[in-house]
Write a structure and sequence with these properties.
The protein is α+β, with helices and mostly antiparallel strands and 348 residues long. It has helices at residues 43-53, 57-64, 91-95, 99-112, 142-152, 162-196, 203-233, 242-307, 323-344; strands at residues 2-8, 13-17, 32-39, 71-74, 79-87, 120-128, 132-137. Helix 6 packs parallel to helix 8.
Length: 348
């Protein structure tokens, strides 16, 4: 699906369209700022994309396939960015409820449906020419939809220029990272409580899931932070408006804060995992102690039973009238003494 926004700088008005004709010359007309959004592109839309600005075939290929890492490519007359969108099953619900309700929802998901805290990433490709932004994505991106909704409700991003529109889209992506990180922070606190209370059921799976998700997000934002630094340092050469550099710095600050948060969480998860393994080991040791005590109590009983089970013809106690009862009494006394001894030394 294709959507086009064209902003007339002189008239301070914009128009939208569901189609794009390169022959209209909007991209060459610097009196206009354009935003072309292509969601779930079909083959004919890829051909339109190829015809817009003679984009390099490799960038078109990148749009067709998921790139594992965000990146930035600089060409003679445009910049190509690959960023990642991230989402969880419950992110939409989290946006609509209060902080207390968020904690309750995350706790419910933690206990009943932990898979809903698993995050997925999707690609957002951005072409930036002198007066045009082109966004390409295989599924709906919340950050893009939010900017579109704000434009429809009267917010004038175009008036401040192309770079501010890019900032709003990237800022929306980073805000989603923060929402996901918030949910993970709450889940880690619940993990800590479970390990402290020695409730270790399914904890290893939860820890490994969170570690995998943190690694994925860390890998994403590390590359995106490098891209933002490149845009800040090479702003003039890349045609970035000087006023927009302050907003890029704001993005850099947010992503740096998120990066610190992820590193702290990764360390906490490592500590929780060690505590979990220690707890499992302690439980195993307690079980082994109990089994050892039981075996030790039965050891003298087995010895006594073995002595009187020998097949010698003459055993002094064999002819005792109450020998059988004496042996059972001896069993009981020895077992009781052993039990008292182990109890006194807090082994059982």
């Amino acid at each position: 699906m294709l959507k086009v926004y064209s902003y007339d700088i002189k008239k301070s008005t914009y128009k939208t369209s569901g189609s794009f004709n390169p022959e209209e010359g909007l991209l060459a007309n610097h009196d206009y700022i354009n935003w072309i959004d292509i969601c779930a592109p079909q083959e004919d839309e890829y051909k339109i994309l190829e015809s817009i600005n003679n984009f390099h075939p490799l960038t078109i290929e990148d749009c067709r396939h998921f790139s594992l890492f965000p990146k930035m490519d600089e060409y003679e007359d445009y910049i190509f960015l690959v960023f990642h969108d991230i989402c969880m099953e419950i992110t939409e619900k989290l946006r609509k409820i209060s902080d207390n309700e968020k904690c309750d929802l995350i706790g419910k998901c933690y206990n009943e449906n932990f898979e809903s805290l698993d995050a997925k990433t999707f690609e957002l490709d951005i072409f930036i020419t002198k007066n045009t932004i082109i966004t390409v994505h295989q599924r709906e991106v919340k950050a893009v939809n939010k900017v579109m909704d704000n434009i429809s409700s009267g917010k004038d991003y175009f008036k401040r220029g192309r770079d501010f529109l890019v900032h709003e889209i990237l800022d929306g992506l980073i805000d989603q990272y923060l929402e996901v990180a918030y949910a993970w922070n709450e889940a880690i606190e619940l993990l800590e409580e479970e390990v402290v209370n020695e409730s270790v059921k399914n904890i290893s799976e939860k820890i490994l899931t969170l570690k995998r998700n943190h690694l994925m997000l860390r890998r994403t934002i590390t590359h995106e932070k490098d891209i933002i630094i490149k845009l800040m340092r090479g702003g003039a050469a890349l045609g970035i408006n000087k006023r927009a550099l302050v907003y890029l710095q704001d993005l850099h600050d947010h992503i740096s804060s998120l990066q610190d948060n992820i590193e702290i969480n990764r360390e906490m998860l490592a500590t929780i995992f060690e505590a979990y393994l220690t707890s499992v080991s302690n439980k195993m040791n307690k079980a082994m102690v109990k089994l050892s005590v039981i075996a030790t109590i039965f050891m003298p009983l087995t010895f006594i039973a073995g002595v009187y089970g020998m097949n010698f013809k003459y055993l002094p106690e064999i002819d005792w009238r109450y020998g059988y009862l004496y042996v059972w009494a001896l069993f009981f006394v020895v077992a009781l003494i052993s039990f008292k001894y182990f109890h006194k030394h807090e082994m059982i």
